[in-house]
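#onboarding

Welcome to the new folks! Below is a worked example of what a typical request in this channel looks like: someone posts a single protein sequence, and someone else replies with the predicted structure as tokens. Don't worry about understanding the tokens yet, we'll cover that in week two.

Example request:
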Amino acid sequence: MGRQAIAANHALRALTYPSVVALYHLEDADDLVAPTLIAAFDGWVDAGSAATTATSQLANGGVVATFDNDVLFDYRSRRPTLEIVDGTLSGLTWPELSIRRGRLEDRDILILGSAEPDFRWQEFSAGIVELARRLDIAQWISLGAIPAAVPHTRPVPMLGTASQPGLLKGHVPPGPAGVLRVPSAALSVIEMAVSKSGIPAVGYFAQVPHYVSGPYAPATVELLKAVGTHLGVDVPLGSLAFEAAQLRTRLDAAAAADEATREYIQRLESMVDEARLPAGDELISEIERFLRDRGGQSSSGGGLLN
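Example response:
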């Protein structure tokens, strides 16, 4: 093969197989001691913005790692916010992915809570696993919220996932029972990758009434309580308990004003009281309807009340 042919072949390889560039930049984190990494993303697994609100409540420290947003986000579907002041383009707020510090009593925690990446999920998962090893992560906790046929008048039902039996704490059951096939979220892809690497991994998922639109503070409260129970610490709720009580009052008033809605909620109450919580097929139906109704809008849901 001539020199020109060899050079052309090398150039083609360079185009076809680009060098791998790390998706993240790690800051100084030498003082962390066996931290727990708690993660949540927006999207369909964040109904009522319950999970990302929970992680924002927990992230009260500096940034430990940042990610290359330009290769992880589709800016046409997740456009940066442009600020225009008196006709002058003055600023842009970009979607971002980062890991931040937190502290719960004497425990170090790390928070990955932000916009769900659009691209390179497998590479992103591998980067998270690499980071978890470098930071000596002791365990992984996913937080999520899913739309379900449950009433707002009863305690928020919880479901859990675990990389092995016995990891879930409190009274959160694994489930639902049987095989459940739903569109995956990046959060679940990462949780699987982390668990396969040998790091204990669990997920706590609140069920949010599918008829509620907007932020659902009761689910956020339950997710934070689940974190506290899992870690054996008290998690400060801030104003969330008050917000949950206010929302309950508004939802009760809205339901009382509409007979059809009131009757529907009463049917849901009967199901819960008789321990007939939604089965896997019913959850799939609610999730599919949620995704159809959502149609590219925010994850707060598209329901009847709020």
